[in-house]
Amino acid sequence: MRTVIVFITLFFSLCSYSQQSVIDSLEKVVGNQNGKEKVLNLGELCYQYAFINIPKAITFGKQALIEAQKTKDQTLIAQSWNDLSIPYLYRGDYDSSLFLNSKSLEIREKMGDSLGVAKSLSKMANCYYEKGDLKSSLNYNLRGISIFKSEGEYGYVGQLLNNVGNIYDRNANYDKALEYFAEAVESAKKTNNPVAYITSSANVANTYQKIQKLKEAERIFLDLIPLIKEQGNLEYLSAVYQGLGVNYRKQHLIDKGIEYYNKALEIYQEMGSDVGISLIKVNLGYCYLEKMQYEKAEKMLLDGLELAKKTNSNYNLQHAFLGLAHLETRKQNFEKSDQYFDLYIAHTDSIYNEESNRLIQEMQVKYDTEKKEKELAISNEELALSQLRNKKKTVWIISISAVAILLLFITWIIIKNQQAKREKIRQEALVNLEKERVRISRDLHDNLGAELTLITSQIDTRAFKSNNQLEKEELTKIADNTRNAMSQLRETIWSIRNEQVTIPEFASKVREYANKILENKKIDFSMECNAPDKILSPNQALSLYRVCQEAINNAAKYSNCTELKANYSCPGNQFVIRISDNGKGFDVQTVKKGYGLQNMEQRVKELGGNLTIKTNPDSGTIVSLGIEV
Predict the structure, then answer these.
(1) How far, in Å, are 42, 45, 47, 514 from residue 21 at the CA level?
(2) Residues 347, 129: contact at Cβ < 8 Å?
(3) Which residues of 147-162 are buried (b: 16+ CB within 10 A; e: fewer)?
(4) pLDDT-based confidence at 489, cuts 50/70/90?
(5) Which region holds residue 141: left if phi is over 0, alpha if psi is between -120 and 50, else beta?
(6) Residue 306, burial from CB neighbour count under 10 angstroms (0-12, 13-18, 19+)
(7) What is the CATH number that goes with domain 500-628?
(8) In angstroms, rounded to a whole number, what is the distance separating the alpha carbons of residues 365 and 346?
(9) Where are the domains of the chain?
(10) Residue 491: burial class (beta carbons within 10 Å; 0-12, 13-18, 19+)
(11) pLDDT one-digit tens code per residue, 125-134
């Protein structure tokens, strides 16, 4: 199970003295103040306490709002709605935080307060991110970036770059995520913003963990701890401890992982952050599961699940259900395991549905297009001024030009009409094809998929109850074959539901399969994808996926390797996949080709490509294939 560490980027007001000093001094003076000064200081107390004591933060935030409404100053009222939203965000009450920010945004838009609008947009983007609505989150973040850039507020730009990076990270587009995080790190350095630097660097470390650069991630986390303690920010300290817990668990240092998870849990409990407590307890549940301490694992997973339900965090719910499914399988409660696994799939679909990457790409393209249109508008204005200076023409030339333009315009309209008709016919055909594809995939999932799940559960139950060892083994084998059929069915549905599949989506699917196969083996899997803009058809995606499956299975079963790597590249119009291991290899001249190798060659051949296998005893194996895209 992969755990995502999310560092939510808020807006920081840095001071030269410690956080507690700020709080103490404000509490001493605020009781004797009135009007605007009191509102601002109460709001600052709300902000400062949001990191260390959420109930106190909410109390001060409500007092600030009451005082602001007395002044009838719309700027102060908007700021108070904004300040009050922060502790609700940290507590995991995202609906309340969205409501409070929407009140602030409404006032700021009416007042034309562009900076205030951008700040509200960024907090709403964070809420949508945690709720799993990544399209809305990206939309709000990109709008905020545009405003901050136009106002020259590059410190804020860096913070929102982190948010966009997190969205790409959650969609497994790690190259794009690292690109945004790196830009955010540089922005933090230029603006001399230590908190933004902590956020950006921690996000880089988090993504490194997902691509198996564990030592690099560990180094970054450990280097950040002194800097975070100097800033006195508990939220970030707990997140780094959490990141180290994930890191050590991935390195199979389970006890060390538990140590850092407990450090993070202690801080989240002190802050009263239900969403943080939920995430840590689920992670601890996985640790105890690996140590085969099932009672502790169950308690932690159920506690984390209840808090995830309370905070409506789809992300935490998803991982809690998966952990409980694994637990019940270990306890041989197969029916209950299937129920938890179905809940995991349902929540995975709600967050990572097949259209999420496409929607995000559309938003990015829209954002880039708006920038180009602004640049083009400036160029057009300069052109218009030049034309005005040369406008003095004779009546005869103007008349001839007008007639020529009119004829061209009529011709253009005729051509456009013909193009529009052809395009309409093409679009109708695509829509009908898409409807049929969705119908077929839905029927497979709802009917055949449900039947296979029921059959598997019944066979598992029969095998568990059987006293005949031979019958038990045969039933277990049948159940495993049925699960394999169900897995292949889901992969087929994944392929046919999409009109096209991007290479990052394909690579993510292969990574998911590799992680599942290698979960209990001491084999490190890494992946490099250098072809983000190429598109595969459903047939190409499914055939290549089956080839990669076979290569990964062979390495896991026969190679005795400790490292397995997948590389994707696009030289020219070719899509090249290279899967290599450091195992014992084999003699291609003497080994007998089984159905697996034959099927790999046949699938690549049907796509018009070629497949080669380079290996020698004791020197590892490299499987290479390429097709035109």
Answers:
(1) 15, 11, 14, 51
(2) no
(3) bbeeeebebbbbbbbb
(4) low
(5) alpha
(6) middle
(7) 3.30.565.10
(8) 29
(9) 440-497, 500-628
(10) middle
(11) 888 888 878 8
